[in-house]
Fold this protein.
Amino acid sequence: MILASADDIDVVGEAANGREAVQRAQAGRVDVVLLDLQMPVMDGLTALAELRRTVPETNVLVLTTFGEQRNVLRSLAEGSAGFLLKDSAPAELIGAVRAAAAGDAYLSPAATRHVVNSLASGQSVLRAEQARRRLEALSAREGEVLALLGEGLSNADAGQRLHMSEATVKTYVSRILAKLGCENRVQAALLARDAGLGV
């Protein structure tokens, strides 16, 4: 009803489930499919993948409920042209269909927040993995010293914790900096944090 109210949008079909949606899109020229992720017979993500495989010229907008961040990312990864929440305003729905028909992407503001948060989280995961790889060059004892640097301990405090002299800790710190290519203990401590060492 909302889409039919727009002069430049023709609703050419409706489907009761994911399989029927795919079949209708395959049967005739469809510019945009508005696809619910929660459907019987074939779920929306499976239908999306099938649509992208069989009718790649058809743009797919995904519709779902708030808070399903995993679905936002998966639908984008599967090639959706955009993502809308089910409680989107009529004008937003119409605008999104127009954007998809023009070949543009559309993300509702709430979905954009999810994507940004996930990218930030993904960058953190990548940074942690890179840091862990760099730490593979360290011996077990050097790793222990680095973990204490990550906690912000001084050489003296680290020495007490590890039952070493302050001079020995200082020697370890110098070796750690050289192996990791860090200019100072702050850089090393940040690397330790990225790798999940320390508190």
